[in-house]
Design a protein that fits this description.
By secondary structure, this protein is α/β, with parallel strands linked by helices. The protein has 15 helices and nine strands.
Length: 355
Amino acid sequence: MYQKRALVAGATGIVGLNVAEHLRDRGGFEITGLARKPSIGASYMRPLAVNLLDREAALRTLATLRPTHVYFCTWTLGRNEDENIRLNGGMLRTLLDGVVAAGTVEHVAVVTGTKHYLGPFEDYGKVTPVTPFREDAPRLEKKNFYYELEDVALDYASRHGFSWSVHRSHTIIGYAVGNLMNIGATLATFASICKATGRPFTFPGTPTAYYGINDITDARLLAKHIVWASTEPNARNEAFNATNGDVFRWEQLWKRIADYFDVEVGAYPGQYNSLTDRMQGLDPEWQTLVTQHGLQPHKLERLASPWHTDLDLGRPMECLHSMAKSRALGFKEFQDTERSFIDVFDRLRAERLIP
């Protein structure tokens, strides 16, 4: 019998999958993974089909569980921020309502992100932030479902006696299929199509993003950060930034990605040029690559999320995060960003998802 029992919500996503894999590698946890469509074949994790938006059905399933550690690594996209608040806050409430009655929960970890500092989707890029972002910065006077998630976690923790942590990641690079915010798979599919069709591999973002200094979050490092905070007494009841710990310029990294795919770098036009527009209608070209290279038969829209990559690369301001708080409390992990991209590309190729 395991003394620690992890419940990972969003276990097939880019964050939840890496949290589950890190828990497996770390040892000492019985792992249950929640997803609307659980993956099969992960023998280290008990998969459960749960849709947290279907409250009554979810509560029936959750009532059978007795987790000690809860990792909320999922989200859903609504039509506007009011709906984002209602849907995502509702999912977290359903998850917690389903498990707190057992009295076994010791810690709840919630993943949010940089929109904590930049504002919701509707206002993205309209805020002029002070960088590097620090966790004690005051909240923006804007509706934000990240604030809702934090407030829900703190409320339940105060009423039910467990500890909490919030993890504010930047753009996440990691392995996952069908994720809403997957910059790694998006750039990999785009580069593959460019190589096959002779299109130039041109950076789509703003000059600030291209020439400026940036940071990013490797999903593997984020998983270590989440599990660390859930098991380290000094890190409990805190909100943390969670990034790789290095900085980079897309001007340099774009060339490295192009070299990996052996594709020509297009001359940067000096202005934002939407990747969503440039990838529109490219599924036929992608299906040709699937056939030619014997790839897994996914549509391009399942692998790539250019709309979110446009948000990441289209910012008119620099976005850097301080990791000083985590360092001071003992989190010493570091990840080289260039290696983050290469490792994801290698795994996508190994899984026959890209040529």
